[in-house]
Each structure stands twice: as structure tokens, then as C-alpha cells.
Design goal:
Chain A: This is Sugar ABC transporter permease. The complex is a heterodimer of chains A (308) and B (433). By secondary structure, chain A is an all-alpha fold. Chain A is built from 13 helices and 2 strands; from the N terminus they run H-E-E-H-H-H-H-H-H-H-H-H-H-H-H. In chain B, 50% of the residues lie in helices and 14% in strands. The chains are: A mainly alpha (308), B alpha/beta (433). At the A-B interface, helix 1 of A face helix 1, helix 4, helix 12 and helix 20 of B.
């Protein structure tokens, strides 16, 4: 009698779990279908194409092993390695400068009592400006002739150089222009997140620091920065991942010139796929980018321990 | 309740499955179409029933002048002549147009007919997107009246996958005020006299945008350089030959002396701005320069044939082709539209009103065009305009050539090294054609 009651109870419980699972699936399903259609399937297909010769019309894939990767690594101008180097340089230059300037601006805006909203809007405007529009403005600023405002400033006003600099069509001129655009575009995003983090810090920490006689810099160093570490971690990951997805600024500003010296992985992917119709090589670049981002994220997760 | 939930899931899953299946069936159809025969029966049935055939035509004509004229004048002319064919004209714009065609080919959403850059035809043919036109009724007659240079770019693997629609080439544009400063009363006929006068004055007088093939090759060819043999199958022995090395060295010498500037390398003033302001005496450009520069006569600008060097000068062929896609179910009607656009009447009209250089030999002799100061120069220059290598890998070849010229001019490599390396790379590409 007792056993049958227990059995009935267990049966009812498993029924409940079964019902709950179905209810959960119903809610998950729309998102799952979209994720399968637009994330997982393209991902798997990309991996398949990267190891194949892909006929776009018939959709036929002929397995070619590592041929696409070999073609990328042995190309005469070493465009792949230059693009990879440029992505790393972009991450190394743009990420710390953006974080630093974003933090400084956030601290400054947090300390002023008037017009803080105005400043927030001004610094955030570049974030919501289209990359194409911003790129065209920068293209005008970095115009290679004396007509370019930056060259005019350097040659005619500051007299730093006697001849205008060919900013966009030289290896380092082009890369510097791309970095400056990246920094200018991202500062507002870092500033806004830092500002939210700073405003979330309990005021009593600063009161205690003030009683202890801490200076403004000491408060920043010993209170603010440690307490906003989770935001720094989040921003670092975001900016580093973003560094592997640089594309539009290269497309608009330099087109990868000269000879791919200012190219990046996503731009190389675009040119290999849509200019040269080398779909396998494009997919291989995509796969390498994804693996690189995964490795960067895993390393950061391990190295940057955050106490929430 | 449970039944409803389970039914919903099954319906969703089935929808997903069938969506995938439909796409692959379409793909199969379009592949079967390659020979251009399979849909013939459908066509005959429709013709018998007297139904109107609808065709889609994609183009990248300019929005200001060309598209309205094409839409409002050319298409009504066609409709009057062929009332049984309806053309749906889709203006795609020029940005990313080639990429859009590739994407449409990969997703089975191609138009029936499209205007294509002539250098893209062989690549699309290799992909299997375009239908061969050789067997179409009236093809041979049409071909015999088309210029050989633009026609050659449509050839791939033994068949023609497109027909030239409009052509272009570069001719010289001179600033007569600047020429006067150099001591010329009229345009120089030879490059030798122009170079001597410029070097004596010690000024920048010629400019190109980049060392890319469209900009650089007319100079390279004019100074005696060659890229491949006549049938475009071999670059070694040609691109790295002594005459090619001499041609590049000549240009490099002029560049080093500051007479010949390359915007992309030197950061010099844009050629269009420089020729108008009088900074440059000469540059090479297509006929559209005059369409976009209404005050060219008042600014002292003049079109002329490219000056000869060692008694020869060369220009470069550009322009667009028209192709019919394999997915087109009414290829006969599509070809009728192509024939209409390549009729003398339409070619002359498009030349006069849309700035499109005709590809028909008979249209090029038409007095309405030959009496025009600009067109007369370009039509004559077209006679010694060379075509770029017609190859499905044209972008890769362009990349190798630009890399070579760039590296040589920036002294990253010697002329011999740069050209030898490029010749070997281009040979590798050509062997895969």
C-alpha cells in the first residue's frame, strides 16, 4: 500500500518535470530555431567550406584538406600574416588607450556637477555615428595632399613637416589613421560603462579614504579602479573581440593599401571571398578569426580574476 | 493542451525541413539549365498561349542621367518593338554591384539579364552562372559587327558568355594653359618631345591614381611593355622580358625625377583636380571625364590621342558587357533584348545621351558621333586600345601586377625581381584557367 503511494508520488513528480521541460522547450524553441538557422548552421557550414573547394552555384563541396590554409600562408605578399599582425597591433594600441581615455573622461564627468549630461552626449555621439560616415570624415581629415586638414595643420600651422604626409596609402600612416578612428569611435562606449560603474560604488569607501587622508589620485588608484575591475574586464573582452572584427574603417579609409599592409583579417576575408571568389580561403580566415577570439577570451578569463 | 503544444513543435520542425529542401531543389534546376535547352519546352508552351514574357534586367547605370534615359526612352522603344516581352529594369547602383551579382548567383536569385563589368564575365562563366551565347540565333551576325577587343573579354573555355554592351578606353587629356608654359602651342604628338619639355621645366606634368592595371598599363604598354603572349596563356618571357623591364625602368626614372607622380604612392594631387587647376599638363582618362566636367573647354582642357613613344601608343579597353543567366527561363526573348540594345540606333542613342561608347563598328562610324570633338578622339583611340587578360582569375592577376609595380616604384624590389616574380605568379594563375 505504502509502496504504491510512493510510486504514484514519484510518477507524479516525473510527470511534473516532463511537463515543465516541455513548457521550457516551447519558450526556448523560437530562439533556438533562430540560433540554429543563423549561428550554428552557418558556423558548421563555414568550417566545412574552409576545408573544401566550394562551387557557389551548385553548392558542391569538394574536400581539399588544408589547401585553403596553405594558400593563405604561402601567398607571395604574405597578406594573411600582415593582416593578423595588424589585428594584434590594433588590439594592443586601441584597447588600452580607449580604456584609459574612457576612464579619465568618466571620472571627470562624474566629478562635475553641471553639464554632465551634455558632456555624456558629446562623448557618446561617435558611438552612434555610422562607421561609414565617420570613415568618410576621417578620409577627408587624412587627405594625402595639403588639402587635408591634418596635413594643413602639420605643414602650414605647426611647421612640423615641410611636405604633406601620405596618411592613407602608406603602411604606418594608414594603420595610425585606422587606430585613431577606432579610439575616437569607442571612447564614448567605455566612458558610459565606466560612469555607470563609478556611480555604483558605495560613497562610504570614499568617505573612509578621505578620513584616512587620501588624495584624489590615491582614491582613484585604490578605490575606484579596483572596484570597477569587472567593468574593465568586460570592456577589455569586448574591445579585444572587436579588434578581430575591424572591417569598415579599413574598407573606407585605406582599402588595405599599400599591398595589403593596412589590411586586417575581416577585410582580407571580404576581398578573398567577393573580389577573388576564393570562398574556401575566406572561410578559412573566418575560422582562424573565431579560434583566435576563443583563445583570447579563454586566456583573459584565466588571467583576469575578478572578485564580484 | 499537450496535443496543441506537440503539434506546434512538429509543424515548426517540418516547416524548417521543407524550407531547406525547397532551396536545394531550386539549385538543382539552375544547374540543369546550363546547356540552355531544358526550359525550351516551357517557352514554347507560353509562346503558344500568347502570354507576355517577363524578364528582369539589372544594371548599374548612373542615377542622375543614365538611368532615367534608359528607363524612360530605351525601354519604351523596346516595348514598342517587342510588345510580348516585359522588361523589369532594376537599378542596382554601382557600389558592391559585382558582389551583389555573386551573392545572387549563390542564392539562386539572379536576374535574367544583367549589365556586367567586362572583366567579370569570365569569372561568372567559370562559376556556371552565365549561359553561353554562341548558339543563339543571330549571334554570328552580331559578333562580326562588334569590336574585337571588348568582344574578347567575354570568351571563356571555348564559348562567349556575354556580349559587349558599351566600351571605353583612355585617351589623353591636356591642359592647354600648362602646355603653353612648357612651350607647346598644340598638343604634343610624341611622348619624347613632351618628356623633354617637362624635364627641362622640372615640373610634375603627368599623374596617375595608382599603380593598378587600369591606371598604369597604358603607360607600360606605350613604353613598350608586354604582359603575356597573344593568346594570354604565358607571362614568363613577356612580363619579365627586356622590353618590359625597360618600359618599367623608363616610368620609374620619370617617377624618380618627379615628372610622373602616382597619387597612391606619392600622395600627390588627384589627377582630376590637378589637370583642372593646371598643376598637371596631361593625364589619361575615359570619356566620362568630359561628361562630369561641363566647363572643360573654358578651363583650357582638350582631349587628344595618347602621344606616341618610339612611334607607338597604347590605351586600355574598359567597359561593360551584357550577359544572360542560366536561371533565365526565356533565353530567346532575353537574347532579343540584347540584340535590341546592340542595334545601331540604340547604340548611337546611348552614346549621345548616356555617354556610353558604342561597341558596334557601324555605330562608331556614325556621323552623329564622329563629328563630336570628344567622341571622335575616343573612337580613334579605341583602335589601339589593348584588352586586359580575359581570365576568371582577373582579380588575382590584377593583384599580382599591382603588387609588382608598387614594389618596384617604392624600391622594395628591383625591376627584374618584381617582374620575374609577377610573371611566375601570373603563369600559375593562367595554368588554372
Amino acid at each position: 500500500m505504502r509502496t504504491s503511494k510512493v510510486r504514484k508520488k514519484t510518477h507524479n513528480e516525473s510527470n511534473k518535470i516532463y511537463n515543465k521541460s516541455w513548457q521550457a522547450i516551447i519558450f526556448i524553441l523560437p530562439g533556438l530555431i533562430l540560433a540554429v538557422a543563423f549561428i550554428f548552421y552557418p558556423m558548421l557550414k563555414n568550417i566545412q567550406i574552409s576545408f573544401s573547394d566550394y562551387d557557389i552555384i551548385s553548392g558542391k563541396l569538394t574536400f581539399t584538406g588544408l589547401d585553403n590554409f596553405k594558400a593563405l600562408f604561402t601567398e607571395s605578399q604574405q597578406r594573411f600574416f600582415t593582416a593578423y599582425r595588424n589585428n594584434i597591433l590594433y588590439a594592443v594600441v586601441v584597447t588600452p588607450i580607449t580604456l584609459f581615455l574612457g576612464l579619465i573622461i568618466a571620472v571627470a564627468i562624474n566629478s562635475i556637477k553641471k553639464f554632465s549630461t551634455t558632456f555624456k552626449v558629446i562623448y557618446y555621439l561617435p558611438v552612434i555615428t555610422s562607421w561609414i560616415i565617420a570613415g568618410l570624415v576621417f578620409k577627408y581629415l587624412f587627405n594625402p595632399g595639403i588639402q587635408g586638414p591634418i596635413n594643413y595643420l602639420l605643414v602650414n600651422v605647426l611647421h612640423i613637416t615641410s611636405t604633406p604626409i601620405n596618411w592613407l596609402k602608406t603602411e604606418w600612416g594608414g594603420n595610425i589613421s585606422i587606430w585613431i578612428l577606432g579610439i575616437w569611435k569607442n571612447i564614448g562606449y567605455a566612458m558610459l560603462l565606466y560612469l555607470a560603474a563609478i556611480q555604483g560604488i558605495n560613497k562610504s569607501y570614499y568617505e573612509v579614504a578621505a578620513i584616512e587622508g587620501a588624495t584624489g589620485f590615491q582614491k582613484l588608484k585604490n578605490v575606484t579602479i579596483p572596484l570597477i575591475k569587472p567593468t574593465t574586464f568586460f570592456l577589455t573582452i569586448q574591445l579585444l573581440i572587436g579588434s578581430f572584427n575591424v572591417f569598415l574603417q579599413v574598407l573606407v579609409l585605406t582599402g588595405g593599401d599599400p599591398r595589403g599592409k593596412t589590411s586586417v583579417l575581416q577585410y582580407l576575408l571580404y576581398t578573398r571571398t567577393f573580389k577573388l571568389y576564393k570562398f574556401g580561403e575566406g572561410a578559412a580566415i573566418g575560422l582562424i578569426t573565431a579560434i583566435s577570439i576563443l583563445i583570447v577570451t579563454l586566456i583573459l578569463n584565466k588571467k583576469m580574476k575578478v572578485d564580484y | 493542451m499537450k496535443i496543441i503544444r506537440n503539434t506546434m513543435i512538429i509543424v515548426l520542425a517540418l516547416t524548417l525541413m521543407f524550407t531547406g529542401c525547397t532551396k536545394s531543389d531550386d539549385a538543382k534546376d539552375s544547374v540543369n539549365d546550363i546547356d540552355g535547352q531544358t526550359k525550351e519546352e516551357d517557352f514554347n508552351q507560353e509562346e503558344a498561349s500568347g502570354e507576355k514574357v517577363k524578364l528582369t534586367f539589372w544594371h548599374n547605370y548612373g542615377a542622375d542621367k543614365e538611368t532615367p534615359f534608359f528607363q524612360d526612352t530605351i525601354i519604351p522603344m523596346f516595348n514598342e518593338k517587342y510588345p510580348n516581352i516585359e522588361i523589369e529594369v532594376v537599378a542596382q547602383g554601382n557600389d558592391q554591384y559585382a558582389e551583389q551579382i555573386v551573392i545572387s548567383a549563390g542564392t539562386n536569385t539572379t536576374p535574367d539579364i544583367a549589365r556586367l563589368d567586362l572583366t567579370d564575365v569570365s569569372g561568372l562563366a567559370k562559376m556556371g552562372a552565365l549561359a553561353p551565347l554562341d548558339d543563339m540565333e543571330g549571334f554570328d551576325e552580331l559578333k562580326s559587327n562588334l569590336f574585337d577587343g571588348p568582344m574578347a573579354t567575354n570568351y571563356y573555355n571555348g564559348k562567349y558568355y556575354g556580349l559587349p554592351l558599351d566600351s571605353s578606353c583612355k585617351a589623353a587629356i591636356f591642359n592647354m594653359n600648362k602646355l603653353k608654359e612648357l612651350g607647346f602651342d598644340d598638343v604634343p604628338k610624341t611622348m619624347e618631345e613632351f618628356i623633354d619639355a617637362s624635364l627641362e621645366k622640372g615640373e610634375y606634368t603627368m599623374n596617375v591614381s595608382s599603380a593598378g592595371d587600369w591606371d598604369f598599363l597604358p603607360y607600360f604598354w606605350s613604353f613598350g611593355g608586354v604582359i603575356t603572349n597573344e593568346d594570354f596563356t604565358k607571362a614568363t618571357g613577356y612580363l619579365d622580358s627586356e622590353q618590359s623591364i625597360n618600359a618599367v625602368n623608363k616610368l620609374k626614372g620619370l617617377h624618380d625625377k618627379g615628372m610622373f607622380t602616382i597619387k597612391e604612392i606619392d600622395g600627390s594631387t588627384d589627377a582630376w583636380d590637378g589637370i583642372k587647376s593646371g598643376e598637371y599638363a596631361m593625364f589619361l582618362e575615359g570619356p566620362w571625364f568630359f561628361a562630369f566636367t561641363e566647363d572643360w573647354e573654358d578651363s583650357g582642357l582638350k582631349p587628344a590621342l595618347i602621344p606616341t613613344y618610339d612611334n607607338q601608343s597604347s590605351s586600355i579597353v574598359g567597359g561593360e558587357s551584357i550577359g544572360i543567366f542560366n536561371s533565365c527561363e526565356h533565353k530567346k526573348e532575353a537574347f532579343q533584348f540584347v540584340q535590341f540594345l546592340l542595334s545601331e540606333e540604340v547604340q548611337v542613342l546611348m552614346g549621345k545621351e548616356m555617354g556610353q561608347m558604342p561597341v558596334l563598328k557601324s555605330a562608331a562610324k556614325n556621323e552623329e558621333l564622329t563629328s563630336d570633338e570628344v567622341w571622335s578622339v575616343y573612337l580613334e583611340q579605341l583602335n589601339n586600345a589593348n584588352t586586359r587578360i580575359p581570365s576568371p582569375e582577373k582579380a588575382t592577376i590584377e593583384e599580382h601586377l599591382k603588387d609588382a609595380f608598387d614594389s618596384i616604384l617604392t624600391e622594395a624590389v628591383t625591376t627584374e625581381e618584381g617582374l620575374t616574380n609577377a610573371a611566375e605568379l601570373i603563369d600559375g594563375v593562367l595554368s588554372n584557367n
